[in-house]
Design goal:
- By secondary structure, this protein is mainly β.
- The chain contains one helix and ten strands, in the order βαβββββββββ.
Amino acid sequence: MAQGDYLTFEESRLTIANGTFDMDTDAFSLKLITTLPLIGATTPTLGDYTEVSNGGGYTTGGIALTTTYTEAGGTATFDSSTNPSWTAAAGSPTNIVGGLLVNATNTAFGFVDMTTDGSTPISLVAGNITVTWNASGIFTLA
């Protein structure tokens, strides 16, 4: 896994099918966390991880995303027109390892690895952080 890769939890396809996630209507956000999730985690929630502390350039609760879920030619695409961005400032978190994609009930759908090597945290004191989603969407299902 490389820095910036988005990964969907293995159980996430099932959570669409069983109604845990309504990709059309759920409100989603990206929250910064201090521990890197495992792709095989079952029914993960924000409570399974520690959100970084409020301060400086980060407000606890992350950034709300404006999302779309479309289907064309047998491929469903989940995307966001919001590229979450946080501004560097003194007092910001220095222990960021990932961004957790959650719905309004804080049930996690996937995550972004923000480390350079799978374990070393990055700092919002050291510089701005922006997550730029892939031009083809956050993820697709075919």
